[in-house]
Amino acid sequence: MLADDGRHQPGDDPLWNESWYLDFWRPDGSLGGYVRLGLYPNLGRSWYWACLVREGLPLVTVIEHEAPLPKPPGLELRFSGLWTDVVAGEALSHMSVGLEAFGLALDDPTEVYRTGRGDPVPLGFDLEWDTDGAVFEYDVTTRYEVPCRVHGEILVGQEAIELDGWGQRDHSWGVRDWWQIGWCWHSGRLDDGAPFHATIVDDRAWSIGYVGADAAPIGTGALTADLDDEGLARSARIRLDDLYLALEPVSWSPVLLTAPDGRVSRLARALVRYTAADGRTGCGWLELNQPQGTSNGV
């Protein structure tokens, strides 16, 4: 088992990256969000994303790709209009996020792919992720996934929201080239309490993931999706061995990713509702990484 949630010694590749991803959602799917802190020590910068999505309301998102690296060994980050701290408690058991930032409210989430303009809105998190299920360790890369219970307070504009819900967090480190291949990542929890997760790379016929509180590894994962002109899924179906899931997107929170060499990828992330073939329902997050080529469209 991987030892801890802390920082690791970087490799030499410019795209060596270490990240902490933390998702959350209400059990009914009416509200969700995520935080991602990604360190690029060889580029001297951090990527930070945070968002709040609510059914029928505008996306509120924070996207910062020019922040400095946190001072070791911690993960506290200060930049223009942004303060955050990601704090690990007992290893693989607890993690908390504090956030004070100015986000952007967007009626059309795909505006992130174009102007990135919206109405400024204060956004704050004081959230706790407590492990609720077995930790799932990847056997092909340095990464692990953790099903969680999530609770705390969200501040958006003048509104304070109490959260008692579910979530998933992961920690990974190594070379990640967002612009080379596409993938589907997703996680969720069904109404009987069963968590699940998978990463699926269709063009390489490769998948990895788990189903159940004991993190039993899957043998086969597959995705079919009906995409609109922006690459957002109108609907999707996922198979994890004998678990068949239909996905209904609730709210989108995408990110535009530009590589140092000009390549571009669209990361389409959505809060989704799941319906299993056996009638169980649930909620979680879906991620579709969609490389586009270079910034001039080639």
Give the integer mean of the pLDDT values: 95
Task: Give the overall shape.
Answer: globular
One letter per element, helices H and strands E, the order comes to EEEEEEEEEEEEEEEEEEEEE
User: What structural class should be given to the helix and strand makeup?
Assistant: mainly beta
Radius of gyration: 18 Å
Euclidean distance between termini CA atoms:
42 Å
- The percentage helix is under 10%
Low-confidence stretches: none
Main pleated-sheet profile: 10 strands, antiparallel
Quickly count the helices.
Answer: 0
Tally of DSSP β-strands: 21
Question: Approximately how much beta-strand content do the residues carry?
Answer: over 45%
Keywords:
298 residues; mainly beta; 10-stranded antiparallel beta sheet; globular
Q: What can you tell me about this protein's structure?
A:
By secondary structure, the protein is an all-beta fold. It is built from no helices and 21 strands. The strands form two sheets. Strands 12, 13, 14, 15, 16, 17, 18, 19, 20 and 21 form a ten-stranded antiparallel beta sheet that branches. Strands 1-2-3-4-7-8-10-11 form an eight-stranded antiparallel β-barrel. Strand 19 and strand 20 (263-276) form a beta hairpin. The radius of gyration is 18 Å and the shape is globular. The termini are far apart.
Present the secondary structure layout.
Layout: E1 16-25, E2 31-40, E3 45-54, E4 59-67, E5 76-79, E6 82-88, E7 94-106, E8 119-131, E9 136-137, E10 143-156, E11 159-175, E12 183-190, E13 195-201, E14 206-211, E15 216-217, E16 221-227, E17 233-240, E18 243-252, E19 255-258, E20 263-276, E21 281-294
Antiparallel strand pairs: 1-2, 1-11, 2-3, 3-4, 4-7, 5-6, 6-7, 7-8, 8-10, 9-10, 10-11, 12-13, 12-21, 13-14, 14-15, 16-17, 17-18, 18-20, 19-20, 20-21
